[in-house]
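Could you help me review a protein record that somebody else here produced? What it holds is a sequence and that sequence's fold in token form. I need someone to confirm that the token line plausibly describes how this chain folds. Take the sequence as given and treat only the tokens as open to question. This is what I was given:
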Amino acid sequence: MRRHGTTPPFRGPTGEVVPGSIAEVGYRRLGGLDQWVMIRGRDVTNPPLIFLHGGPGWSETWLFRRFNAPLENSFTAVYWDQRGAGRSYDRTASRLSLTVERFVSDLDELVDQVRERLGKPQVAIFGHSWGSALGVLYAAHFPKKVAAYIGSGQIGDWAAAESASYELALANAQRRGPRRAESKLRAIGPPPYGADAVFTERTWSLRLSGGMSLQTLWGIGRTVLGGKEVSLFELPRAWQGFRFSMDAMWPEISSLNLVDLVPALEMPVYFLLGRKDPWVPPTTSVAYFEALRAPMKELVWFERSGHEPFVDEPDKFNATMADLVRPALLTSRRATLAGSGHEPEGTTAG
């Protein structure tokens, strides 16, 4: 039996539940499957923000909740374990159901449910790594439902990013060792390669680039051991879902080229990039940013970050989202409502 877990309500100084807040967790029917979704926000009048995790198949809800929970004061945050990931992983599911088209359709059902639940015409989408490809594809297909797109570890030309990541890892191995690293990388050879080789390349590129700091790893450990939404006992199942999803989807996703597929978006676009990202080298993300046409686009660098700026520099990430992205969403919403003849609802500052 899969359990959806619990999430604490927002409480005031005397312990009362904050009026107008939301803290819901459970399974929603998306694409014919029960998929795990959590919605949290101190004020439901805030803009909805849907987090799209990476992988595919690797839920990052536990990271978002540990390092980015302050955003729940500025947005109504929607956390989703995509099909094949985390608490949405179903051992009986068919590999044939894990396609990019299916994920875009699942996300559309989720967006419609969120818009109806919160009474909002649009949502903001944050996509990380694989989630950044999914988010861009969705925003291109359903522009009227997306108020803004925010990408991190942003995919552009996926094949180019894989090649750049491999070359960087091999150069680091040759320069600083150990010899075993170069041997393992040469054994898999340069991409294109299968999902098993991806795990080898990712492991060594992370080690050779310095990996996560001890402070970050300690924070992650605290989350897994002490969080209400995550249990240590769920990690083996989460890893199974990750491998299952990668094996099923890698041939399709690793050939995606968003530079060709999505040359333009119709909403504001923000790229929040880690300068030291070893897995999606930022040169490839910048190439897509420069080619992408959008009514407004902005690139923010996180100089001390790797693949996960929201983990490596959470204070800066949270401030960027609250102080840069949120005001733009509110301005855009007021303009939309004014154009439709409706008065905007009141909002609260994050």
The mean pLDDT is 90. The longest strand covers residues 22-30.
